[in-house]
Automatic annotation (TrEMBL):
Keywords: ATP-binding, Kinase, Nucleotide-binding, Serine/threonine-protein kinase, Transferase. Residues 8-262 form the Protein kinase domain. PANTHER family: MITOGEN-ACTIVATED PROTEIN KINASE KINASE KINASE 20-RELATED, SERINE_THREONINE-PROTEIN KINASE NEKL-3. GO terms for molecular function: ATP binding; protein serine/threonine kinase activity. CDD domains: STKc_PknB_like. The keyword Transit peptide does not apply. Pfam families: Pkinase. This is Serine/threonine protein kinase. ATP binds at K37. InterPro entries: Kinase-like_dom_sf, Prot_kinase_dom, Protein_kinase_ATP_BS.
């Protein structure tokens, strides 16, 4: 597509999202390089407008900015901050696990973004390694609010319909429910992947992955990374807790990252609860 769209010249294809194609673009008048998301599925137009409305209201150093949203010749366009750098998923695929110190730094940045969202009654609902870019120098940026839900968002999902990426979904999302606690489960999945290079809930089929998630059945991360600290293991354990009411919040994660001694307090009932989650029918 060589024809400029409202002053934006598309310069490079970046990738595909759940609802459209993403391009790098340049605006001659402002001399700004941006990312433009073009809606490719017209049946998703209402969700696309909701993404624009939710993300445009946000200002946080670890959330990608929205500059504008418009419809040009029937084409819905979302203009976003362009972020140079790989996603966390791309980094892991190329380099393997992150050093623990780096993983904690990135986790703190994303937890800060989640705490900001949750304080505004916004749930991201699709937090995953592929939706977080690492800008230079080591600054995480949360992307893709296509599934985000704010208190003021219209109801766009039928009751019981699954929303999210299966491997990062919390147990309750398989029943069509989601909350800020669901984002925190996904934060635990993200930390596990950053520290081991592997997703915690593998499976040959989506139903097998779902069964393991709903049981909280994952391989202890130190078996994949023997150098892992006890603090990281406990943090993962307290995020990948089946009951959303017992899961750490984004604010608690931030507190634990700043004061790791908080993770040293023994959780005597934790192993019992984990065992019950795995054996209960």
């Amino acid at each position: 597509m060589n024809q400029p769209i409202r002053g934006y010249t598309l310069t490079q294809w970046v990738g595909s999202g759940g609802m459209g194609e993403v391009y790098q673009a340049y605006h001659t008048a402002t001399q700004r390089t941006v990312a433009i998301k073009l809606l490719s599925r017209m049946e998703q137009a209402e969700r696309f407008r909701n993404e624009a409305a939710v993300q445009a209201s946000l200002r946080h150093p670890h959330i990608a900015l929205v500059y504008e949203f418009f419809v040009e010749n029937g084409l819905s366009c979302l203009v976003l901050e362009y972020i140079e750098g790989p996603t966390i998923e791309q980094y892991i695929r190329k380099n393997g696990p992150f050093p623990e110190e780096t993983a904690w730094k990135l986790l703190a940045q994303i937890a800060s973004a989640l705490e900001y969202l949750h304080s505004r009654d916004i749930v991201h609902r699709d937090l995953k390694a592929g939706n977080i870019k690492i800008a230079r120098p080591g600054k995480a940026k949360l992307l893709d609010f296509g599934l985000a839900r704010a208190a003021t968002s219209p109801k766009l999902t039928h009751e019981g319909h699954l929303i999210g990426t299966a491997s990062s979904m919390a147990p309750e999302q398989f029943s069509g429910r989601s909350s800020s606690a669901s984002d925190c489960w996904a934060l635990g999945v993200l930390l596990y992947e950053m520290l081991t290079g592997q997703p915690p809930f593998g499976g040959n089929t989506q139903s097998e992955t779902g069964r393991r998630i709903q049981k909280g059945d994952y391989l202890a991360p130190h078996k994949l990374n023997p150098r892992l600290s006890k603090a990281s293991e406990r943090l993962i354990d307290r995020l990948l807790t089946v009951s959303p009411d017992r899961r750490m919040t984004a604010r608690q994660v931030l507190e634990a990252l700043h004061h790791p001694a908080l993770l040293n307090a023994p959780d005597w009932m934790g192993p019992v609860r984990k065992w019950w989650d795995r054996v209960k029918p």
